[in-house]
Amino acid sequence: MDEKYDVIVLGTGLKECILSGLMSVSGKKVLHMDRNKYYGGESTSLTPLSELFAHFKVAKTNLDEFGRPRDWNVDLIPKFLMASGELVKLLIHTGVTRYLEFKSVEGSYVYKAGKIHKVPANEKEALTSDLMGITEKPRYRSFLQFIQEYNPSDSSTWDGFDASKQSMKECYEKFNLDPNVADFTGHALALYLNDDYLEKPALETLNRIKLYSDSLARYGKSPYLYPLYGLGELPQGFARLSAVYGGTYMLDKAVDEIVCDGGKLIGVRSGNDVARCDIVICDPTYAPDRCKTVGQVVRAICILDHPVPYTNDAASCQVIIPQKQVGRQNDIYISCVSSTHNVTAKGFYLVLVATTVETDNPELELKPGLDLLGAIKEKFVAVSDLLEPVDDGKETQIFVSKSYDATSHFETTCDDVLDIFRRSTGSDFDFSKVKHVLEETE
Q1: Range list of H helices, 56-167
Q2: How far apart are CA 11 and CA 41, in angstroms?
Q3: Might you report a single GO cellular component term (predicted)?
Q4: Are 208 and 340 part of one and the same domain?
Q5: 193 and 165 within one domain
Q6: What's the CA gap between 344 and 277, in Å, rounded?
Q7: Is residue 226 part of a domain?
Q8: pLDDT value at residue 441
Q9: Which residues of 43-52 are buried (b: 16+ CB within 10 A; e: fewer)?
Q10: Interacting residues of 134 by C-beta distance below 8 A, sequence separation 6+
Q11: What pLDDT digit, counting tens, does each position of 327-352 carry?
Q12: 3-state secondary structure of 267
């Protein structure tokens, strides 16, 4: 290991594998290490089914009722990809799509007043949605038209509203939208975790809604994609990419210390060997002294033998419960996948219910989501700390990723990846060469 590297990446979670791939493609000499024998870190996929029970220390000797155990690929932190989102752009740009196959998610839903409703994201759906009354629908249609036509560099499209200066709250008021309509728009289309966005300039929210709508237009049923055989395929795809460009991988390798001298990064020690480098990128478990706890996430992985009720028997879907609907500060997210994505045996469904912890009884906070599922055959609950780095890493050249949040999509994950890339290299990742058709998924 007595070699000098540009970048050493610690941990094979999805964020770290993406960054390893991007760094290798950018011409950096990369060493990628993980103390585990498997890819994925805390975002790994478990197979066969017995691994899920073992992971949660649940004794179950007879798994015959769940079909063939090897048909199961259970993601510990399942998340969907926006069809026109940043992660898909990264996959296309880097060519990782050649290693993966995706299938669209069948439906996107939102919870309102005790019921599940399909999310309207275009003018036609807005006019037929049961989320709004008759007088509300034309206003919402005008709102969506405004967003599609809005161009921040062309004031003739602004209709008197400057989204770079005026707040999203003012935008809702401009179209006289009902608070409940604003609620599902901000949380189920713009995908915010809470209402902090309301007082901020509206432009980011308009862009998020446009992304949702553009993603929906790509495949029709929902804006989301999910890889066949689960998310464990994603980090492996980026790992292959890194290897193609000369990256070196070491799994099952002890990582004993990130070595610094007088605040200056030297390298990474494993036993008596030190691999020298200019930059370290790692997940929080490799640098706990450089992280702070900013909250917790509670997740319940549920096995069902039926689809989520009131989703038109969708084989896969997302349901968002906006926080106001259940008297909370943070949304509850439900994601469902099944054998259509090759992650369960036939006739079964994997459902994740997740939220940001607010009380001393985290599992009880999931109740509004769990109550929507009907009979649950098995349930596995975990509470995880949300960790963030204490600094931006520029002084030490040690860049630590954030923990995975409660959201059921990858947009916040990609924000973190691209931010680390920017801080560690001094420049933004260049999307200018990105093609806009994901041929391999069509």
Answers
A1: 86-94, 123-128, 136-149
A2: 6
A3: cytosol
A4: no
A5: yes
A6: 42
A7: no
A8: 36
A9: bbbbbbbbbb
A10: none
A11: 999 999 999 999 999 999 999 999 99
A12: strand
Which band of pLDDT confidence, cut at 50, 70 and 90, is reported for residue 412?
A: confident
Q: Tell me the DSSP string of 337-401.
A: EEGGGTSS-TT-EEEEEEEE--SS-HHHHTHHHHTTS-S-SEEEEEEEEEEEESS-STTTTEEEP
In 3D space, the residue among 369, 363, 366, 368 whose CA is nearest the CA of residue 336 turns out to be 369
The burial of 126, by beta-carbon neighbours within 10 Å (0-12 exposed, 13-18 middle, 19 or more buried), is given as buried
Average pLDDT of 233-238?
90
Residue 159 and residue 153 in contact, taking contact as beta carbons nearer than 8 Å: no
DSSP state of 130: T
- Alpha-helix runs per DSSP H in 153-284: 168-174, 179-184, 203-219, 233-244
Q: Which CATH number fits the domain that encloses residue 335?
A: 3.30.519.10
CA-closest candidate to residue 402, choices 40, 13, 6, 84: 13
d(CA 133, CA 177): 11
254 phi and psi, to 5 degrees?
Answer: -60, 135
Q: Which two tokens stand for residue 135?
A: 């007088």
Same domain, yes or no: 250 and 272: yes
β 273-282/4-10 pair status: parallel
Q: Are 34 and 74 found together in one domain?
A: no
Q: How is residue 54 written in tokens?
A: 């073992």
Residue with tokens 């900013």: 294
State whether 123 and 214 are in the same domain: yes
In a domain, 224, yes or no: no
Mean per-residue pLDDT, 364-393 = 97
Q: In whole angstroms, what is the distance from residue 384 CA to residue 386 CA?
A: 6
Claim to verify: residue 162 and residue 182 sit in the same structural domain: yes
Residue 437 has pLDDT above 70, yes or no: no
52 has a pLDDT exceeding 60: yes
Is residue 29 one of the residues assigned to a domain? yes
Is the pTM of the predicted complex or chain greater than 0.70? Answer: yes
> What's the pLDDT at 431?
65
* pLDDT tens, residue by residue, 134-183: 899 999 999 999 999 999 999 999 999 999 999 999 999 999 999 989 99
The CA distance from 426 to 34, in Å, is 26
**Which letter does DSSP use for residue 187 in this model?**
I
In angstroms, the CA 94 to CA 357 distance is: 36
Domain endpoint, select from 177, 196, 219: 219
- 8-state DSSP, 264: E
Domain residues for the domain of 38 are: 4-43+232-292+387-437
